[in-house]
Amino acid sequence: MDRGLYIAAAGMRAEQTRQDQLSSDLANVATAGYKRDRTTQASFGDMLLHNTRTGAQVGRVGLGPYADQSHTDLTSNPSRETGEALDFAIEGDGFFALQTDAGVRYTRGGQFRVSPAGTLADARGNQVLGQNNQPIQVGADGRVDPQELGVVALTDPVKRGEGLFEGTAAGNAGVGTVRQGALETSGVDPTRAMVDMIASLRAFEAGQKSITTIDETLGRAASQVGDARRM
User: Is residue 212 assigned to a domain?
Assistant: First the structure.
């Protein structure tokens, strides 16, 4: 019976991880260049049960799931026209390079602006790096030649929050082209994310009900044992 509590709790923890990712997806439905995460679930394994008197095999019982590996879907998404001179989309593979306080980071979100220094920057003030790994100066007409932007391929990119990635730059071979006046759309399908969220919530609630049922059964069993001893 105790094992049932652990199995239900393990399932709830796995679904909590899934819900956190889906919540992030739904919050970034309109975020340019957003890439969704997914975590695969695996089983702790099965336990072979035996009859304590005869030693005969009774069968196997699972030990519950757990969140195994997370991965980011880096598939390139379609771009949408914005008409803004400092909006850029990468059509194909690759990332824009940014100079941040933590070092060089990379992003697919190309919604940039002019910094106080007159250079191209993102919404948080991180400098956008050009082909020469130096900040890009915005022209007097408020425009930037898209060919000036540095677009690099990354080896094993890892999310570092706020749409930024960390990884090893692998040059610009095989990267996509930069389109000015457009932004890459978010990688989230809101309809699918809502359906997945509802399914996850139902699985989480099923675990809660299992724990409640087992707890009530254990309570009745303890009460009945106590009554039997008093008889």
Answer: yes
